[in-house]
Write a structure and sequence with these properties.
alpha/beta, about 20% strand, 5-stranded mixed beta sheet, 5 strands, about 150 residues
């Protein structure tokens, strides 16, 4: 799987979020080498604190790929928060790929500090980190500089 190819698509989604005044975080979900859902952060533009990029993309595929969901890969430009990681686990996606993490941008590290509940799940999510890390970090910092 060409992780960089799909992370570039997630970066395009992050740019959409940034243009709307949201945190520049983007997400795509891939199945059978095709993007089946896209999402970008919309918490400020919608006033909905649950409108994270990952949640938006996951909601788009909730019923579409039920039988093949374990084969899907979620790409996000920024390390998922506990809510989004929990949704990924509950959706039973097989793989999570993210670009940059909170350590690299000056915030708390979510993945290192996940609640024990996530670590005790029978279904394990494979995590790939650092894909286009510098590009993802610079995208995230666009918002930090503006706010």
């Amino acid at each position: 799987m060409d992780h960089e190819k799909y992370m570039k698509e997630a970066l395009k989604e992050a740019e959409k979020a940034h243009k709307k005044g949201n945190w520049p975080i983007g997400c795509v979900i891939v199945l059978d080498d095709k993007i089946i859902a896209r999402g970008h952060n919309e918490i400020y533009s919608t006033g909905n604190k649950l409108a994270h990029a990952e949640m938006i993309a996951l909601n788009k595929i909730a019923k579409k790929i039920f039988d093949k969901r374990k084969e899907a890969i979620l790409y996000t430009t920024y390390e998922p928060c506990p809510m989004c990681f929990g949704a990924i686990v509950m959706a039973r996606l097989n793989t999570l790929v993210y670009g940059t993490c909170v350590d690299e941008s000056g915030y708390a590290n979510y993945m290192k500090n996940l609640p024990p509940l996530f670590k005790q799940q029978r279904f394990e999510v494979k995590v790939v980190s650092g894909v286009l890390a510098e590009e993802c970090k610079q995208m995230f910092l666009k918002h930090k500089i503006v706010t």
